[in-house]
Amino acid sequence: MLFHSQEFVLGFLPACLAGCFLLGRFAGRTWALAWLLAASLFFYGWWNPRFVLLLLCSIAANYALGQHILHLALAERRAPARRWLIAGIAGNLVLLGWFKYADFLLHIAAPGAAPLGIFLPLAISFFTFQQIMFLVDSARQDRADSGLLTYAAFVAFFPHLIAGPIVRPKDIIPQLRRRDLAVPRATNLADGLTLFLLGLAKKLVLADTFGGFADIGFNAASRGASLGLFEAWYAVLAYSLQIYFDFSGYSDMAIGLARMMNVRFPLNFASPYQARNIAEFWRRWHITLGTFLRDCVYFPLGGSRCGTLRHSGNLLGTMLLCGLWHGAAWRFVLWGGLHGLYLVLHAHCRVTLPRPLAQALTLLAVVVAWVPFRATSAAAALSMLAGMAGLHGIALPQMVVQALPILATVATPVPVLSFLGDGRTLSFPEVTACLLLGWCIVLLLPHVHELSERARGWALTSGFAFSMQALFFAPHVAPFLYFRF
Question: What is the model's pTM?
Answer without folding.
Answer: 0.93
